Amino acid sequence: MKKTTSHAKGLIFFAVCMFLLSSRAVHGQTDEPINAGLQFNFSSPGARSLGVGGAFLGLADDATAAFTNPAGLVQLSKPEVSAEGRRSSYTNQFTKGGTGNVSSVQALQTGTSKDDVTNLSFTSFVYPRRRWAIAAYRQELANFATTLASKAAFYVAPLGARLAPAEASLALRIVNVGVAGAVRVNDSLSIGAGLSDYQFNLHALNTRFQTGDDPGVGAIFDFESQAGHDHELAVNAGLLWKISPQWSAGGVFRQGPRFNFSTLTKQADVTIPSFTLHGTFHVPDVYGAGVSFRPADAWTLTADYDRVRYSQLAGHTVDTQNPPGLANPAVNQLVVDDANEVHLGIEYVMTRLKYPVAIRLGGWLDPDHRIRFQGTPPTPPIPTTSDLLTQQLFLDFRPGSDQVHVAGGIGLVISERFQLDAAYDHSRFVSIASLSGVWRF
Question: In total, how many domains does the chain have?
Answer without folding.
Answer: 1
